[in-house]
Amino acid sequence: METLYFWPEMPGLSIVVLLLVTMLFLWIAREPIHKAFEALLEGTSGGLKKMADSAKQLAEKMRERDRKVLLESGIGDAKQKLQEEFQRVEMSYTKHLSNYPALQRKLDDSISKIETDYKDCGQATPEAPGWNEAVASIAKVQGSSGDRVIEKMLSEIHKSAVDGEKRALTELRNTTSKRHKILSSMAPVWKSISKQLKEVGELVGSVLDTTNRIDKHMTQFEKISKGDQDSIDTLASRANKLFIFSSIIMVVAAVGAFVNFRLIALPMSELMNDGSRFLGMPVSDFSALVIILIEVFLGVFIMDALGITNIIPQIGTMERNKRRLILYASLFFLFLFACAEASLGVLREMLTEAKTAANQALAGSSAAVASQGASQITVTGQAILGFVLPWVLALVAMPLEVFIESSQHAFRKLLILLVNTFASLCRMLAFLIEYIIKIIIHLYDAYIIIPTKIGSLASNRGKLQNSGAGR
Amino acid sequence: MDMNNIRAFIIIALSLVCSACGDNKRHETAICALMDISGTYADEKPNVIKIVKAGIVPQMSPGDSLFFITIDSNSYDEQNLKASLTLDYTPSKANRQKLAFATKLDEYAKTGGQARFTDISGAMMLCTDYLKKTGSGNQSIIVFSDMREELKEGFKRNFDENEFEGINIAAMNVIKLSPDSSDPKLYRDRLASWEKRVLKSGANAWEVIIDPLKIPEYIERLR
Questions:
Q1: Assigned CATH topology for domain B25-222
Q2: How many Å lie between the alpha carbon of B52 and the closest alpha carbon of chain A?
Q3: pLDDT value at B14 more than 80
Q4: CA distance B174 to B180
Q5: Given an 8 Å threshold on Cβ–Cβ distance, is A362 in contact with B23?
Q6: This prediction's pTM
């Protein structure tokens, strides 16, 4: 500070003179300095505001893109569901309705049989009309004429009439018995018809169920196609739910993969370890990791070939025979890996036992080695674990697909949040800088207030004088 | 994609692969155990060998190295290297090597002999030579001694400025001498002067381990 003094021996005077000189200079340079501050304001605060606006626009675009992707995914899902239902209908037609002509023929046959039986039942022997009344009349006449010849003739007529009636009765009984037999033979046919009709009813019922489901999916499809906010919210909520759920499963799967890694890493070092490293880990560890990843990929191939997932679209669009080939090849390799891991599990236990024994020998301990039985259980357990874990890991393909699909929305949302936060920060910073620069300008004006006032007074006086001279 | 882009892509890919591949050496550990066989400490021989066998050898991993050197009147001599071990990367072979090393130590324990002078510095310098040859990423010297040096007349043992660069040094099973019991300051000052000396010569750290059970923890910290 003292270096700035005009007269170091008189600091007070020097400070006063310094203040006056700077005041005068800043008053003269007021306009360019104000412009410089305005430029600084425009450059910093204005730039930050523009940046915030751009970030906001970017976030809006991303939100719009996310909305579109969600809609497309929702429409795709609905289409897939519809397609599945139609496939189910097609399968139902192929499987059940192909039997329908045979069923119909059976029904026709049964109905024809019933018709024939019905006709048979209708064929009854007609009874002679009026015979009963004639026999009764003759019976009354008998014995009243007194003529023996007539009496005998009437008696014969009466006898033959009674015989005829008896014959007719017997005939009637026989016919009725036949009809009963025919009717009793119709019962199984009725039952068969009832059963066949029940089958038809079930078929129709399943078709109706499928139709109802199709109706439901169609309604949903139409609703999503409209793209209203409710549909977007529903789709977003569904995507979030799936993301959380699949993330939990993926974490569990990662732990499973870690267990598998621990199981095979040590025996792998026995098989392949030359002291080199890859990506910071021993080659044996890296190989164990690669084996686990291959098992997961084989699982993806299997699930895609089965049509359960669609992570690799090329597999889904392949011909049935090729898909089957991929399925069998993947299953075969997975089986080989499972067997290899089971044997590695056994080797691991052997190595661990050898190490324990060596350490005990080094320590000079005579501690009893674990019993043979316990060792067998451990070996079997590790072998089973080694065989089962690859198959379990192969199932990860399903949650993996869900995770990949749902994570897109989740990450986009996170990105939007980050961009919006950045925009808010920029805006806040711009606001702060703007006020700081304004405060500096006010302080600057306050510092040169004395020359400014003197200047304005002088200016006013000059104006007054000019106006007085003018009059 | 034109040829230049393809070339650039290949160069980047190759450099990434090369950087990803690495040598195991910097992840390996080399330990040098020094055993004092001079004066009263010679009686500690069975105890020290037991600690080395049960405390240090089991902690060695495939690829690690271990040297067993004695401290006598003239320690800077190849004859003082009584046993050495560099473990194979295959765990089963490494186990067999450990057992063979232990047998060598047992055989050495049976031999007699007591040195008149105590050339700790010479043994440490010999250790440094062996440790540096291994190129291991983690190196350590564990000294089993009372830490009182007595050099023959005419012997010079001056450490270079970077003598122990990258090496951790620990004093283990430091027994107290008769004057130490009457004045513990002597014992403490002796250890402090060693600490000062080795740190001045570039050692990573100096440590005094009292409990042999802490050795596994110490070796784990080295890694």
A1: Rossmann fold (3.40.50)
A2: 9
A3: no
A4: 11
A5: no
A6: 0.63
